[in-house]
Design goal:
21 helices; globular
Amino acid sequence: MSIWSEFRFPRNGIESVPEGEPHRSGFQQDYDRLLFSTPVRRLSDKTQVWPMDENDGVRTRLTHSHEVANLARSIGAKVFGIEEVSKEFEGPDFVGVLQPILSTIGLGHDLGNPPFGHQGEASICKWFKCRESWIFDRVSEGAAGLRDPIIDFAIKNEFLKFDGNPQAIRLITKLQANLHGNGLDLTAGTLAASIKYPCGYGEVDESDKIKKKAGYFKSEADIVSWVWGKTGLQSGVRHPLTWIMEACDDIAYSVLDVDDLLKKGLISPEEVISIISRECSGFDDGKIWLNAKFCMVHEAGKSHHVVRDLKIQFLRAAFMKELIGHASKSFESQLSAIAKGKGVKPLMDDSAVCECLKKIAINYALNSPKVLMAEAKGAVVIDGLMSELWRAISDRDDFEDLGSRRRSLKSKFVFSLISHNYLDVAVSDSKKHGIRYSEMRLLTDMVSGMTDTYATKLWSEIKGMEHVCCA
């Protein structure tokens, strides 16, 4: 039993033997499996901040995720290069263990996010909230009650408070096609580090920063239980590397979202320095360094556009250095607590610079008319798609058989768009968790897996069928 366990989930009830190779550890295999998977490629067309932006230099979920993975490797190398830290965690090999786990959890941390950014999550929640009066205990609105109604409020919240984090765990452990139904079949060590919030929906505690959200659904509870058994972790205890990944996510979207603002010309380098100087302390060395670099840029006699680009690069470098240093020191100072899994404060919680950069991103990007308009359009798309997909999922001959014949031509068409693998998983889950739970899981699996462009195009096509006779 070790937090670096290379065991993989049992196949057909039989404990899987680690499959490491002489030149490649099980964790390196994990990274390769994730990197070449379809969900990772889809991140290239999922919103980070700017939906379907025409500027191809602006970040998507994919570029953001690669940056988080890179930052995680950097901080991991920094902190585990300290003898005291390495010794506390059994001296794991950096190349064979630490680097691939950090790369994998950084690359995969946003896999479960639906299209249109965080507004996508809110739209999914709203769709279920609008149907809360019947969807958990009736066949349909105004119809007879379900044989297996959902009465557990924690399970209802899997949909009413849908979140991309548990969806990512479902995606990598179950939804990817696998002969044995184990998804990407990653090691216990990598899966443990992937669980950002180590609790189910029934254990959520908004006053606890690592249990303020759920990290997995009921449908994957058996897998999470196995992971904890193999790694020695438990509910409410994070894997040590998860703290690093969380910090890197904070660093990436604070520094690099501002970087995108600068590239789009929505704020100037001088304005960023002015705001940082006015609203937060502790960045004096960074400001001195930046002022010196900016003077050098002006003296170089470059064109206006080149001067701006160079200033943006120096800003990014200064903020990265500051925040990476902060995260590393915070990890080292909390070493004992992280090892014990108790009383840990998120690594970036007391970074004034990080907080200030987040505020800049919110004020200049997230509240901009273009982003708000795109989010509003995305909400309409998701609401419409969920309604049509639900109609297609529900409109079948045999209620107890998710795969039975659809009753109308339109339902047949929409249902044909559903992933066969997702449907197989839903059918299998229905035997264990009930029909209604599996229907709703299938719906959220489909919508959350879509890219911005695909969702927009599909909704346009389906909406165009409104006046077509499809009986």
